[in-house]
Amino acid sequence: MLGFLYQVSAAPESTSPQRPETRRPLPVAAQQALLAWAAASAAWPLTVTDADGNILAANDAAASLLGYSRSEFETLHILDICSLERASAAAEVLEQLARSGTVGGVGPARHRDGANVLVRYVGSKLELEGRVFYVFSSFPIRVIDTSRTPQARGGSARGQAEITEREREILLLVGEGYENDAIARLAVNTVKTYMQRVLAKLGAHSRAHAVALAIRHGLID
Fold it and tell me: What is the spatial distance between Cα 152 and Cα 197, in angstroms, rounded to a whole number?
């Protein structure tokens, strides 16, 4: 009995669990399965690609955002869901991810029906046992229905010079309050060049004036 009391009194006061001295690493297959599970369980659109941009895992939110089933979405390449005019920019995003490990911006993704969905996105690079994965989170801003533009209907914007789809996207983003450095993955100087063209085509004296004229003439909603 005295020995038992001695053992009790000599025991450490803390009852918190002890941290193990070693940690068992997860096998590669288990890591990838866990990554796929995390992607599928996220509440927001989440997509995982390999280093080449092939979509390996996604959740229903990411697939339905662009009009696909999840099984269809997971057979695509990242370039398959980019606006046709933005293929080179998408390649630049992957290159930046490879270099810096993170990326973020605002840009259009291509819906299955041809419309563009403007999204704010962030991407992170993961390395698991020598393999590289990219994880993208996307937050939709608005849908650009290209069939509703005057150009798509075969007309012109009430005498105004036609603007390109990329110029229209930038006008939409300007109207949403985004600054040049937050618009997609184009260099700031490129965005400025687009805006200068839009100002000249619309005869606008400022960004706000250009947005107002574009709305008035039905170029943007």
Answer: 20
